[in-house]
Amino acid sequence: MTAPVVVILAAGQGTRMRSSTPKLLHPLCGRPLLTWTVAAARAAGAAKVVVVGGPDRALAPGLPDDVVLAVQQEARGTADAVQAAAAEIDRDAPVIVLNGDVPLVTGESLHQLAVAHTEHDAAATMLTMVLPDPSGYGRVVRGADGAVERVVETKKPGDATPAELEIREVNGGVYAFAGGELLDALAEVRSDNAQGELYLPDVLPILRGSGRVVRAHLVDDPALALGVNDRGDLAKVRAEAQRRILAAHMAAGVTIVDPGSTVIDDGVEIGADTVIAPFTSLHGATRVGGGCQVGPHSTLLDAVLGDGVAVPHSYLTSCTVEDGASVGPFAYLRPGAVLREGAKVGTFVEVKNSDVGAGTKVPHLSYIGDADIGPGSNLGAGTITANYDGARKHRTTIGARVKGGVDTAFVAPVTVGDDAWTAAGSVITEDVPDGALGVARSRQRNVERYSERKKEIEDQWPLKS
Predict the structure, then answer these.
(1) How far is CA 331 from the centre of its chain?
(2) Are 74 and 218 within one domain?
(3) Annotation-wise, does 122 bind a ligand?
(4) Which helix (H) or strand (E) holds 281?
(5) What is the pLDDT of residue 226?
(6) Number of domains forming the structure of the chain
(7) Is 93 annotated as a binding residue?
């Protein structure tokens, strides 16, 4: 079979979204709507992918380099949109045309449509589905021989008769055509309908009138062609897309304790035997190794986790956590944070742009920013790296096997050597050599009889209420 040209119609204004963002750039499970149909076209083996957009070229920045953008200068309907891509259509090859707002269509379904079209030597083959409630969809009118006679649009009153509105087989908005016959038929489409537009389905009776066969390819899964017209539709499509994503992970050996409370973007990678606890969200380029425990109530954005990592009740973004490390609960790993193998970042700890060595522990109530910490160190509760002097950021270097006392502040730039110690409550402003104890606090002074003396003063000078 000759590889098809795939034309994706994406010039609609999407006014029902009530948004300044073009409809097809709204995100669906981590990536724009339009990229879903582009990916399906590629998976179907397309020789070329053409996206038809509006004159503002708003879609151009989000298109891959190998996707051609054709411009429909005026919003004159779907047939006119395909005509805008005519220069990219090969007369001797099949053409698949679909709307950009059907993100659940798969590469496999497009390939099967193209195969059915080629095997039956049809001029056109359309993907159809039977819906319990076909409202808003074009109805498929078949002839006595079962072939498609025409598709009746239902966008405006008067487009369809009452009898046609009773039909439940609908147009999925996905077509396969013989390239040359499509181009010839487009020239004959007229705008004598309620909206005064040039409808692509109107090429079907034109093709039949020339004696050619128009077939329907009925699919069992109506979700394949679910369209997005407004935010309610987007929510429905997102629910189905999310269900498919979670099902694929579970089939691959991931335990998702409560799919109904779990959000995982398309493209997220998760290893086998990992458990995703309820109310957990995994986004962007996140990769999770095998045997991890993620959640409950954790959010990961562009985070990379090795094997055997635990992340309960925490927020991680653009960071790396190596094998066997643990994060949280209630920890925050910011961009540039790296936790080496077996490291621990505990309760109410924030780490930013820092490298925490293998086996090093920062158990609780600490801020580690712009720091490099060697392996096997232990920083006490309340550790702070003071990395900003009001003008510039500076780094703190802490060696291996360092024992930091509670409430220690490291005022960068400062270096603490291997096997060094810091006393509790110290503000370290100078380097601490290897094996030394850094003490940087004022000496304690006890005021004797303080309570008695305070009471004597209060008796002489009572406070007025």
Answers:
(1) 23
(2) yes
(3) no
(4) strand 281-283
(5) 84
(6) 2
(7) no
Is there a binding annotation on residue 186?
Answer: no
CA distances from 286 to 271, 299, 301, 309 (A): 12, 10, 6, 14
- If one compares 154 and 169, the residue with the highest pLDDT of the two is 169
Angle at CA of residue 270, ends 268 and 276, nearest 5°: 100
Render pLDDT for 3-59 as a digit per residue (tens, 0 to 9): 999 999 998 878 888 998 889 999 999 999 999 999 999 999 999 999 999 999 989
The residues, any chain, with a CB within 8 Å of residue 61's CB and separated by 6 or more, are none
275, β-bridge pairs: 255, 293
Q: What angle do CA 163, 215, 153 make, to 5 degrees?
A: 35
Residues 108, 272: Cα–Cα separation, whole Å? 26
Residue 176, C-beta contacts closer than 8 angstroms, at least 6 positions apart: 4, 94, 95, 96, 113, 114, 116, 117, 122, 124, 125, 126, 217
Within a 13 Å sphere around the CA of 378, how many CA atoms are in the beta-carbon half?
6
Instruction: Answer yes or no: is 77 a known binding residue.
Output: yes
pLDDT value of position 465: 55
Nearest to 312 by CA among 297, 325, 322, 292: 297
CATH number at residue 105: 3.90.550.10
The whole-number pLDDT of residue 360 equals 98
431 token code pair: 């380097």
- Residue 249 CA to its chain's centroid (Å): 15
pLDDT of 228 higher than 70: yes
Does 446 fall in a domain? no
Q: Does the pLDDT at position 193 exceed 80? A: no
- Beta-carbon contacts of 267 under 8 Å, excluding residues fewer than 6 positions away, are 30, 31, 284, 285
318-354, pLDDT tens digit by residue? 999 999 999 999 999 999 999 999 999 999 999 999 9
Residues 212 and 332 in one domain: no
pLDDT (average), residues 131-147: 85
**Predicted local distance difference test score (pLDDT) of residue 120:** 87
* Predicted pLDDT of residue 464: 64
Question: Beta strand pairing status for 148-152 and 139-142?
Answer: antiparallel
Binding site annotation covers 446?
no
Known catalytic membership, residue 364: yes
Print the domain residue range for 298: 254-438
Point out the domain boundary residue: 180, 207, 225: 225
Mean per-residue pLDDT over the chain, rounded: 93
Catalytic member of 26, 111, 117, 364: 364
171 is in an annotated binding site: yes
User: Which residue, among 138, 260, 122, has the nearest Cα to 194 in the 3D structure?
Assistant: 138
Token pair for 391 = 């003008």
